[in-house]
């Protein structure tokens, strides 16, 4: 009896998981985005190997004395022998040649390149974490409100509208000024501000999908609420949600950068792109490298996520 | 602006060896091949075929709206003797709308929702003929009267959403006719409409075909509509015309196996579920880039001869030079066409068991809250929508009960209450002797939920696109079957796939890899996974092509027969209902207006609404004569139902002063046969039947 119903071969796990991503090859915009993102992910992963200098080590020899910025030479590295620089690195006196400061150093003599490289770690941990948590909050609320309508919808929609109607930056300042500043609080603040937007998107998708017959079929066999929300509706909303997540990740990176720029970022001294821009801002007229390169880093990463989102959208609309 | 070649006497439209291709990422797809057509003045030609056969592509090519990736790769389209390919874009624009007009399937999509209809209609004469405002308005009003719209002035001042679907389609037809085109293309103009509304539009089109100087091409998948409107017919299959000729000739003496297959698959009055079941055409329509060598229909044909039918392209062969009937078949004069009429496998007549479902005086009212200021002042903030009003009927084991009515009659609400997605406002829904009317599905016992399942209407919506077929069926089995062991579940899924005649390797397929008919089969498997005693089927085949529908219908009936399931079949298609139902419940505006056995419903005495419904159903049989009853007006709103008899606003037999005041009584016309009407039974019984079979010998086949 069992032989009559021999099971067909199941596609291999690799095909099922990575198959859809292969589609992205058909969109060159998406491929550029993916390359940019992958570039920064690899940089963050291999930061200890890639960075020529410790990110937080100030090189005394290259420090600009006091507040005498106007007299400081515009190029700090040129003409300084490598040996001298290396010797100036604390605990590194024995080493003779340890490279060049490709992107220069900052006002306290830290290597900008190394700080950008280690800053990538910072960004690529907290931005995805905050975005993920925001989805974790927004998705269940959105699904529930969009599917059940009624009271749940009224309450959640009201709350999200109140949050959305508040100027975001003021909101951040309020949160971060009143609460002790830490990575956890920053992430929480971003989640608080981003979740309502996610809620609205998911709610809209759920309101559309709840009218599908497969949802009615699940209802007629008495499926519990969680099954209908997470097994019947959510998987079919994943397309737009993935695209939205990529875009939102870009915005969150900008938000975290902005917060650091106005002095509400991660506590120093760990490198943070936003704070690097803020520190370089005062000398941007004659020493643009300190602000410029972190700016480029943020832009390229955000652009990468945006292009990736565009590519995913393009691919998903085909077929 | 003068008419284009007003003195042209030859054919209005001629397609010569027309071939149309579309470029896609994969390959160039030949959508239409070798298409020939001669449309004379004042003639109507029907293009019929299943979806994907290329009939709409032909219309698009005639209008030359093919998009960036479509192109005419061979042949010519001659309009009044002029090759359309030689015209410039400006000349083509002048032809479209002016000389050639088109009516699409979805009227709401053809009208601009943000503009009042007067401007949209007046645009046509103003733009095409340079008419002034006054003249344009006068012509628009005349045309609205001509398409039999009541109160043209009011229609002119409305926005599209303010008039009904049937009225919208009439406006679209009026708009198409305003420039007095010589050629009118109608692409499934009534598919989106209810059957009684459709009947009105079809009558209008047939009348226009007679009086106007307009030639028409009528595209439809419905052979019955073609019979009512057209002079000639072209049957298309996989991008080719496989048979052409006069409608009567092709209907009575078809000479292509595909045409024969189509007629065998539709529920004609001659079909019978026990003695003469429908025959589906086996196999599937080939994909355009994977068509077989030789005859495209070969792999599905019973008369296929290897070595002959699969050698090179097949040309159209003349069957009757006098009437220009032709068939693209090498063996048309060898096949014994009469033999196909016999050899039906007889199915036993079902015996019904005990009562499974008994609905008693069930009512379902929805409360609508009205927050408007006027409602608050009037103190009437809630209004009731009476979706179901005192529904009483029963269904027995192994019985098929059809619930018939147009959209908005409350049949879907009834299904929701039965399945527990809604609860009844009043009355009882007894399922196996237990009242479930007030119990929502989440509160019902697992055995009750399992025992009543549903087959849904839309094949593209019925399966969750994110899960594989196996996972979806497996979930139902785990939920209902009490089986939790992975292998056992899988074995049961395989068994179910086998029951619905799908191969085992569908287990890991996703719904998008399945055709409409296959999805519907999985939907049936899902409904039957828990061995239900009753299945509610909501128009399970209405979205499927003719031959696929026949196969799915047959499958549903086979399964029902072997499991002795009670089938509640919700439909608006009376032909199909007559074919498969044992008993019929006719609903109108939430009321059951008539119920009885299928024979009782389809012969007098009728309720006037049943009578109108029967008359509205197009039947693709030349030997059938029908009484024409066109219902006036549109379905009243359930929010504000008419007083007295719900049907009196559209009834052709109403008595003034009685039907619009008093609720009609229930007349018992026989055991189990009830009619809700004021007209005395003897008068109803005296009504002559709507559908009459003419002498069969006169329309002898072959």
Question: Mind sketching the topology for me?
Answer:
The complex is a heterodimer of chains A (319) and B (702).
Chain A: H1 13-22, H2 28-45, H3 47-50, H4 82-88, H5 112-148, H6 150-164, H7 168-178, H8 183-209, H9 213-220, H10 225-261, H11 273-281, H12 289-317
Helix pairs in contact in A: 2-5, 2-12, 5-6, 5-8, 5-10, 5-12, 6-8, 7-8, 8-10, 10-11, 10-12, 11-12
Chain B: E1 13-23, E2 28-39, E3 44-48, H1 55-63, E4 70-79, E5 82-83, H2 89-95, E6 100-103, H3 107-110, H4 117-129, H5 133-146, H6 152-156, H7 165-177, E7 183-187, H8 195-211, E8 215-220, H9 223-229, E9 232-237, E10 240-246, H10 247-252, H11 257-265, E11 317-320, E12 325-327, E13 355-369, H12 373-378, E14 382-396, E15 400-404, H13 411-419, E16 426-431, E17 434-435, H14 446-451, E18 452-455, H15 469-481, H16 486-499, H17 516-528, E19 534-538, H18 546-563, E20 566-571, H19 574-580, E21 583-588, E22 591-597, H20 598-601, H21 608-616, E23 624-626, E24 666-670, E25 673-676, H22 681-685, E26 691-693
Parallel strand pairs in B: 3-8, 3-9, 6-7, 7-8, 15-20, 15-21, 18-19, 19-20
Antiparallel strand pairs in B: 1-2, 1-4, 4-5, 9-10, 10-12, 11-12, 13-14, 13-16, 16-17, 21-22, 22-25, 23-26, 24-25
Structural write-up:
The complex is a heterodimer of chains A (319) and B (702). Chain A is globular. The model of chain A is unreliable at 1-5, 65-79 and 93-97 (pLDDT under 50). The two termini of chain A are 40 Å apart. The longest helix of chain A is centred in the middle third of the chain and has 37 residues, at 112-148. Chain A has 319 residues and is mainly alpha-helical. Chain A has twelve helices and no strands. Chain B is an alpha/beta fold. Chain B contains 22 helices and 26 strands. In chain B, the strands form five sheets. In chain B, strands 6-7-8-3-9-10-12-11 form an eight-stranded mixed β-sheet, sandwiched between helices. Chain B has an eight-stranded mixed β-sheet with strand order 18-19-20-15-21-22-25-24, sandwiched between helices. Chain B has a four-stranded antiparallel β-sheet with strand order 2-1-4-5, covered by helices on one side. Chain B starts with 12 loop residues before the first strand and ends in a 9-residue tail after the last strand.
């Amino acid at each position: 009896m069992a032989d009559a119903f021999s099971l067909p071969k199941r596609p291999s796990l690799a095909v099922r998981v990575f198959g859809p991503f292969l589609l992205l090859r058909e969109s060159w915009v998406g491929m550029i985005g993916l390359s940019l993102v992958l570039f920064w992910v690899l940089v963050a992963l291999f930061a200890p190997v890639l960075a020529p200098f410790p990110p937080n080590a100030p090189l005394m020899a290259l420090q600009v004395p006091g507040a005498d910025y106007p007299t400081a030479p515009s190029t700090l590295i040129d003409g300084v022998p490598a040996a001298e620089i290396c010797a100036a690195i604390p605990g590194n006196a024995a080493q003779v040649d340890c490279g060049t400061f490709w992107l220069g150093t900052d006002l306290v003599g830290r290597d900008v390149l190394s700080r950008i490289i280690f800053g990538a770690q910072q960004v690529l941990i907290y931005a995805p974490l905050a975005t993920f948590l925001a989805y974790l909050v927004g998705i269940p609320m959105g699904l529930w409100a969009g599917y059940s309508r009624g009271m749940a919808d009224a309450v959640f929609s009201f709350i999200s509208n109140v949050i959305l109607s508040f100027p975001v930056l003021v909101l951040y300042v309020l949160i971060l000024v009143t609460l002790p500043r830490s990575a956890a609080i920053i992430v929480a603040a971003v989640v608080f501000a981003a979740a309502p937007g996610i809620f609205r998107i998911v709610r809209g998708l759920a309101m559309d999908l709840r009218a599908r017959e497969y949802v009615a079929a699940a209802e007629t066999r008495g499926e519990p609420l969680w099954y209908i929300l997470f097994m019947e509706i959510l998987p079919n909303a994943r397309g737009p949600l993935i695209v939205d997540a990529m875009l939102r990740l870009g915005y969150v990176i900008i938000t975290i950068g902005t917060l650091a720029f106005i002095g509400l970022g991660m506590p120093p001294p760990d490198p943070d792109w936003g704070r690097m821009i803020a520190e370089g801002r005062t000398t941007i007229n004659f020493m643009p490298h300190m602000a410029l390169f972190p700016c480029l880093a943020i832009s390229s990463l955000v652009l990468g996520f945006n292009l990736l989102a565009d590519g995913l959208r393009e691919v998903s609309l085909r077929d | 602006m003068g008419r284009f070649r007003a003195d042209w006497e030859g054919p209005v439209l001629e397609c010569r060896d027309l071939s149309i291709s579309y470029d896609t990422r994969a390959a160039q797809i030949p959508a239409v091949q070798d298409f020939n057509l001669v449309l004379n003045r004042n003639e109507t030609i029907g293009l019929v075929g299943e979806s994907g056969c290329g009939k709409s592509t032909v219309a698009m090519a005639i209008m030359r709206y093919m998009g960036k990736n479509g192109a005419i790769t061979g042949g010519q389209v001659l309009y009044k003797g002029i090759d359309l390919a030689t015209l410039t874009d400006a000349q083509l624009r002048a032809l479209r709308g002016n000389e050639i007009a088109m009516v699409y399937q979805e009227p709401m999509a053809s009208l601009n929702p943000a503009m009042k209809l007067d401007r949209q209609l007046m645009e046509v004469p103003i733009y095409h003929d340079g008419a002034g405002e006054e003249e344009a308005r006068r012509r628009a009003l005349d045309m609205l009267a001509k398409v039999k719209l009541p109160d043209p002035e009011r229609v002119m001042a409305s926005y599209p959403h303010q008039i009904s679907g049937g009225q919208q389609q009439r406006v679209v037809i009026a708009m198409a006719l305003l420039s007095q085109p010589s050629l009118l293309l109608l692409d499934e103009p009534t598919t989106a409409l209810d059957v009684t509304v459709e009947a009105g539009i079809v009558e209008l089109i047939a009348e226009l075909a007679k009086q106007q100087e307009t030639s028409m091409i009528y595209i439809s998948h419905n052979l019955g509509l073609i019979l009512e409107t057209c002079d000639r017919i072209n049957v298309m299959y996989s991008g080719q015309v496989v048979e052409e000729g006069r409608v009567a000739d092709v209907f009575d003496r078809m000479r292509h196996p595909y045409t024969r297959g189509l007629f065998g698959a539709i529920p004609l009055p001659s079909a019978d579920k026990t003695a003469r079941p429908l025959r589906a055409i086996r196999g599937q329509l080939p994909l355009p880039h994977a068509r077989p060598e030789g005859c495209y229909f070969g792999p599905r044909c019973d008369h296929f001869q290897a070595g002959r039918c699969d050698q090179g392209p097949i040309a159209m062969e003349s069957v009757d030079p006098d009437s220009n009937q032709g068939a693209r078949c090498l063996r048309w004069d060898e096949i014994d066409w009469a033999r196909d009429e016999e050899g039906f496998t007889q199915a036993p007549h079902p015996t019904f068991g005990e009562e499974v479902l008994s609905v008693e005086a069930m009512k379902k009212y929805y409360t609508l809250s009205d927050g408007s200021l006027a409602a608050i002042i009037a103190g009437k903030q809630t209004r009731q929508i009476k979706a179901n009003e005192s529904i009483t009927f029963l269904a027995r084991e192994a019985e098929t009960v059809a619930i018939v009515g147009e959209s908005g009659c409350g049949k879907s609400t009834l299904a929701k209450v039965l399945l527990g997605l809604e609860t009844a406002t009043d009355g009882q829904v007894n399922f196996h002797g237990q009242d479930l009317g007030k119990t929502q599905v989440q509160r019902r016992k697992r055995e009750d939920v399992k025992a009543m399942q549903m087959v849904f209407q839309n094949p593209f919506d019925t399966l969750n696109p994110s899960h594989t077929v196996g996972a979806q069926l497996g979930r139902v089995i785990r939920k209902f079957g009490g089986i939790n062991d992975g292998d056992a579940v899988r074995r049961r899924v395989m068994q179910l796939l086998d029951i619905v005649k799908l191969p085992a390797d569908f287990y890991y397929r996703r719904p998008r890899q399945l055709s409409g008919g296959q999805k519907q089969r999985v939907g049936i498997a899902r409904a039957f996974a828990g061995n239900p005693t009753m299945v509610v089927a909501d128009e399970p085949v209405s979205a499927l092509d003719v031959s696929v529908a026949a196969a799915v219908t047959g499958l549903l009936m086979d399964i029902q027969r072997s499991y002795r399931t009670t089938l509640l079949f919700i439909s608006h298609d009376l032909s199909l209902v007559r074919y498969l139902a044992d008993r019929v419940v006719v609903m109108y505006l939430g009321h059951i207006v008539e119920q009885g056995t299928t024979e009782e419903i389809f012969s007098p005495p009728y309720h006037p609404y049943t009578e109108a419904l029967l008359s509205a159903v197009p039947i693709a049989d030349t030997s059938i004569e029908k009484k024409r009853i066109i219902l006036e007006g549109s379905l009243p709103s359930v929010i504000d139902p008419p007083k007295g008899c719900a049907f009196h606003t559209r009834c052709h037999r109403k008595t003034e002063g009685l039907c619009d005041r008093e609720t009609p009584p229930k007349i018992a016309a026989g055991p189990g046969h009830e009619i809700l009407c004021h007209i005395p039974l003897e008068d109803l019984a005296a009504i002559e039947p709507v559908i009459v079979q003419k002498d069969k010998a006169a329309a002898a086949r072959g």
